[in-house]
Specification:
This protein has 5 domains: 93 residues; 150 residues, FAD/NAD(P)-binding domain (3-Layer(bba) Sandwich); 152 residues, Glutathione S-transferase Yfyf (Class Pi), Chain A, domain 2 (Up-down Bundle), CATH 1.20.1050; 108 residues, Rossmann fold; 73 residues. It has 32 helices and 19 strands. It is elongated and about 110 Å long.
């Protein structure tokens, strides 16, 4: 389900709310939703687990008002849909409540100064409904008077003495109530046969409103929603559809009456925000698939002890959804879930006008779509974050620094150093067009060469070459204009070559071609799977855990091809928990490493932790991410052609560009007998420690070379006499590069390099 036909729809609040409501995480567990008073069993249980009975009691008392009574007499509607019901039996909630009253009770002092509201409420009847209403209103400062026909409060509760509830317990709850300034008129029978009689009574006692708590003749005549008798200030009845004689129902009735009374007296909407007052069915999703059966500890004992209570409490599943957060390290790291993220994104775009934290969070998402695959309601956070990025670019709120390096790298792939569009040598036409992806060229140029050799040998109808970037980096960055410029340029090149069938080595490129170009592309793995290219394994038999590329999560054919190829080559294939349709991103998608490298590392590590064996994947970026985190991993092409162990490491940003330039030059010379582009005439030397620093700062060796070349051409540099070195700066775009170096006969020794975005203004 999608509400975003256009990314601009997201700033429409109605659309945002329609997306937001699909996330069930903030919905109450069934135990809470079915309780008229919405007792928060989950939170109470968490306190018990931590042996904090006092906090558990305080929360319970806040909800039910009379914990000593309710804990003894509640009929436990919560148990009917407890998620534990079929897994060892529902949680013994009332037993937990009895325990927290026993072990967590503390007497709270009445505040010395309560607010004083000059409105008088008359309550007819002195049972549990009346006591609840009086409690709610008195502690808020209303003048409350109770008119009871007998000589004591409690009403029908005294029926349970001494069998079910001890007299001193009831007495203590009554006494606790009477600590508030409540006037009680005992042995006072108020006539209730007609509205006129009640109005006369209200006038006689000077009340602003009256509440009939007992089941009089008028009890069932009130409005089911407001609890008001028509055109009066008389409150009575119940909003419940079931037996209203249970203690928890009576407390609910009393609390509902108090809400109505207060709103009438304040002259505000009586019904606003009361949609989920009382019992209702929750929409919260909770997965119980792997939950073991465990019976209640109370089945074998009647003893009320802390140990049994804690044990029973720990049976509680603490129901929540969080399915997407369990699978997504990004969401886990930013400590929220879709509903919260949606609000934050919307507020950031519409109200805050761009905050650092929100911008970083928006720009860090992998955009992989795992959340939608996992979510029971198909909430697609990638869609939301993508819309946000595009809106930020449109409104010029997108930080220039966020994706600039990635976009410059894309420009490099589409520039003269790498771009190449040719028919196969000796062919005027091409049935196929090999689009390896800029990333395979950047990481494994030698593999690319071997693949193309095999394509040409085994396909007679011509296999052309197109070296470029599909434009996904621009799309991920939210730069729609740049993305479609790239799309249109490549489409024209493909048309010039006669619209051949595209063979790609990148699952992301394949998905982009299909979704944005309207072109179906073949994965290179299909050529081996259907035996268009014969295969012979060059790798000893291994145990592999397969990692599926997130861009191929719905491509079942690709997933099956890779597994079959691995098995056919003699390897054992194992699965991760999150695989195929629900696979997690490797940490590169959405340009995550360019915005938040720390989170990207955690995302990668999460997959590694789930992969006991070496990893097999068909996306070279995925493989490289695992290599970067020192996890042995293979691209499927390495199973066929082998690999250079010395090369088997994360290629630096500089190496990735050098490899693309090198493979273009190699193809030009090998297949078309043409000369490629020359390297920069500036030899530099960088030690390993500094190389790592420069890599982390995303400074390319070519950036350093260009800075030194510019210094030589313009004579614009500083002499640092103290350190005996030269310092120069160079600003080719939005970034200024500073280089500290020494000059030698055979080149330049680099001592340091850094960047900034400051611009020095000249007057």
């Amino acid at each position: 389900m999608s509400f975003l036909d256009n990314y601009k729809d997201f700033i429409n609040q109605d659309v945002m709310q329609k997306i937001e409501v699909l996330c069930t995480q903030e919905q109450a567990p069934f135990c809470t939703s079915l309780c008229p008073m919405h007792v928060d069993v989950r939170s109470i249980s968490k306190f018990i687990d931590n042996e904090d009975f006092t906090k558990a009691y305080e929360l319970y008392k806040k909800t039910v008002l009379f914990p000593k009574i309710i804990s003894k007499l509640c009929h436990e509607p919560c148990k009917s849909k407890c998620k534990r019901k079929e897994l060892g039996g529902s949680i013994e909630v009332r037993k937990l409540e009895e325990s927290i009253v026993e072990f967590g009770y503390i007497e709270k002092k009445i505040p010395a100064f309560l607010p004083k509201i000059q409105k008088k409420v008359a309550i007819i009847g002195g049972g549990l409904r009346a006591m609840t209403t009086a409690n709610e209103l008195a502690r808020k400062g209303y003048k409350v008077s109770i008119y009871e026909k007998s000589d004591k409060l409690g009403g029908n509760l005294w029926r349970y003495v001494p069998d079910k509830i001890l007299a001193d317990v009831l007495e203590s709850e009554i006494n606790e109530l009477l600590r508030y300034k409540i006037d009680v008129f005992y042995n006072n029978l108020v006539p209730l046969s007609s509205i006129n009689e009640i109005n006369e009574f209200m006038l006689s006692v000077g009340a602003d409103i009256v509440y009939i708590s007992c089941k009089s003749e008028l009890f069932y005549d009130s409005n089911k929603d407001t609890l008001l008798l028509d055109n009066t200030k008389i409150v009575t009845g119940s909003r419940l559809d079931y037996d209203t004689d249970t203690v928890i129902a009576k407390v609910y009735d009393g609390k509902s009456a108090a809400t109505t009374i207060e709103r009438v007296l304040k002259e505000v909407s009586i019904m606003a925000g009361r949609e989920k007052e009382g019992p209702y069915d929750s929409g919260l999703f909770t997965d119980t698939t792997n939950i073991e059966i465990e019976e209640s500890s109370y089945l074998n004992t009647s003893i009320l002890a802390k140990e049994e209570t804690i044990k029973e409490s720990k049976r509680c599943l603490k129901c929540e959804c969080m399915e997407c957060v369990k699978g997504c390290e990004f969401m886990k790291n930013y400590k929220a879930y879709p509903k919260k993220y949606i609000r934050e994104v919307y507020n950031n775009l519409s109200i805050a006008m761009g905050t650092h934290h929100a911008n970083k969070m928006i720009n860090t998402c992998n955009l992989c779509g795992q959340c939608k695959s996992i979510c029971p309601n198909n909430v697609d956070m990638s869609e939301v974050f993508m819309a946000a990025r595009k809106l930020m670019v449109d409104s010029k709120k997108m930080p220039q620094s966020a994706f600039e390096f990635a976009l410059l790298d894309m420009n490099y792939s589409n520039g003269e150093e790498f771009f190449l569009a040719r028919h196969q040598e000796g062919k005027a036409n091409s049935e196929y067009l090999f689009f390896p992806s800029c990333q395979l060229a950047a990481s494994e140029p030698k593999l690319l060469e071997k693949v193309y050799d095999d394509l040409c040998k085994n396909i007679d109808s011509g296999v052309g070459v197109l070296f470029s970037c599909c434009g996904v980096m621009a799309n991920w960055s939210g730069n729609t204009e740049i993305f479609y410029e790239t799309v249109n340029k490549l489409k024209k090149e493909i048309e010039k070559l006669g619209n051949p069938k595209i063979i790609s080595a990148c699952p992301t490129c394949i998905s982009v071609f299909k979704e944005h170009y309207g072109i179906e592309a073949i994965g290179i793995w299909e050529m081996y799977s259907n035996k268009s290219i014969p295969i012979n394994g060059e790798l000893e038999n291994k145990k592999f855990t397969v990692h599926d590329a997130c861009s191929a999560r719905f491509n079942k054919n690709t997933q099956e091809d890779i597994r079959s190829l691995g098995k056919n080559l003699g390897h054992e294939i194992f699965e991760k928990k999150y695989n195929k349709e629900i696979t997690a991103c490797c940490g590169y998608g959405g340009l995550m490493p360019f915005v938040d490298s720390e989170t990207a590392g955690k995302v990668t590590d999460r997959i590694i932790e789930d992969s006991e064996n070496e990893i097999l994947t068909y996306c070279v970026n995925c493989r490289d991410r695992f290599l970067k985190q020192n996890k042995s991993s293979y691209h499927f092409l390495e199973l066929i052609y082998g690999r250079d162990n010395h090369h088997h490491k994360w290629p630096t940003w500089s190496e990735r560009q050098e490899n693309r330039k090198m493979i273009k030059n190699l193809f030009l010379e090998k297949f078309w007998n043409e000369k490629g582009t020359e390297s920069l005439d500036c030899k530099i030397f960088i030690d390993k420690d500094l190389e790592k620093i420069i890599e982390d700062r995303m400074i390319l060796k070519t950036d350093i070379q260009k800075a030194i070349i510019n210094a030589n051409e313009t004579n614009e540099y500083f002499i640092n006499a103290i350190e005996d070195c030269l310092i120069t700066s160079f600003r080719p775009n939005n970034v200024t590069f500073w280089v500290k170096y020494n000059k030698f006969e055979d080149g330049y020794k680099i001592l340091n390099a850094y960047t900034h975005r400051m611009v020095f203004m000249e007057k």
